[in-house]
Amino acid sequence: MGSNVSSIDSTQDELNNRSLKPKLEDIPEACVAIVLSYFDPPEICKLARINRTFHAASSADFIWEPELPSNYRYILEELLGLNVAGMRKTDIFAKLSRPNSFDGGTKEIWIHKNNGGVCLSICSKGMTITGIDDRRYWNYIPTEESRFQTVAYLQQMWWLEVDGDLEFQFPAGIYSLFFRLQLGRVTKRLGRRVCNSDHVHGWDLKPVQFQLTTSNGQRAISRCYLDNVGTWVHHHVGDFVVEDPTAVTKLKFSLTQIDCTHTKGGLCVDSVLVCPISLAKELRSFNSLIVTK
């Protein structure tokens, strides 16, 4: 009888000791929030699934404030027409980490989920293309391979000129500008991607020229021969530096091949991408892999 009572008592003591051991949910929410502030946004989102305390702590404004670009108010209020008053920083980050269209749907803006870098894209309809109104030369064709669902397709022309501009209040940093181009028209056949290169010609005779200028006097020029039949490639135009994050930077960019000694055709013009130079290095590496294959 005595041994049974002793056994029951020891079991009860063991249960009591277990209940006294600290658990994750016992950590104060403020402490969890401080720990989360040392992680990147994707990691914070993963940790928020651990339990209710982590989930609640992950919404703290001081965690997300450093992850937002310095111009987030300008983006939300000036470009997207939203009121930031009362919005939680986590909701702002979630909103900006998705593509947001503006300027009649011809431009999109988003921030990179890992580092909050600001990225912008301008579609072909947001640029000035010589001869675009004459269907003998150019057509807008639908495609699922563009974030804008449409690209400009050049059938044949002597004079190629695509111009664009952008006014934007960039955070301080170094940025790169790319043209996203492809030779050949891609279609789907029996569920497979097929490239029609019938109109592709003239790009091996003379290089195309890319140009970038800024309102504060920066300029970049690059040239290359186009040979990426059936493959989308981001062609690097140049880089520019933003020192004053409160000033509006004006960009002008162009793609030309105006040697009228020969015609050229079969070119798809999708968009122009502007992104922080840290992300541009990833694009260049990806393009190098495509060329190598």
TrEMBL record:
SUPFAM superfamilies listed in its UniProt record: F-box domain (SSF81383)
Pfam families assigned to the protein according to its UniProt record, in alphabetical order: PP2 (PF14299)
Cross-referenced InterPro entries: F-box-like_dom_sf, F-box_dom, PP2-like
Domain F-box: residue ranges: 21-67
Listed name of the protein: F-box domain-containing protein
